[in-house]
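haha ok so turns out i had the wrong file open the whole time. this is the CORRECT one, sorry everyone. sequence first:
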Amino acid sequence: MLADDQCYALRDPAVRARRRRALTKRHVAPLKRFAARLRRKLPGAVPDFDPFDGGIFARALFVAERPGPKARETGFISRENPDQTARNSGALLDAAGIPRSDTVRWNILPWYDSRRAKISASDLSCGAGYLLELIALLPHLRVIVFVGRRAQQAARMVMIPAGVKVVNCPHPSPLNLNADRRQRPAIRKELKAVAAILRE
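then structure:
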């Protein structure tokens, strides 16, 4: 049996059930309500935030491009999702010394829709609006990390609050890391910068 915080743990239905029960905890309940509201209005599946992360107390918000098929299956945006991108992400964050309690994960496109491969400019604009709503729920935020090219494009549409820094980071997908050996060191560099911001 996999531990609840082990790589790929969310492939286990029992682990997913425990994680869903944890969504009632104080640090993540407002984010659960936020995701539920988006599910009622958006076209595809909107996963929940991971209650093992920092929730509303997080100081670092990681914004990737959009949920993958495994996030749709498990119902969470999590480093314990059963895919290599989630595993890479968790390992790189741990190596950078970024406490999990300081992080919360999201996507510039909150929804997963298998029928739409391309991300349009209107999608990014829509997602940027929802990102602003999320930022308002994170009073301790110190840094926003835009992960991947499309998330970084949307960053230009977001009014970043005063005192919050922005870091652009390559995407930790296996496709990206395997295609260019420079990407992993580049990610490590940016995550070290995030860790330094959190120590300030």
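The helical segments are 13-22, 29-41, 69-74, 84-95, 121-135, 149-155, 174-179, 183-199.
again sry for the mixup
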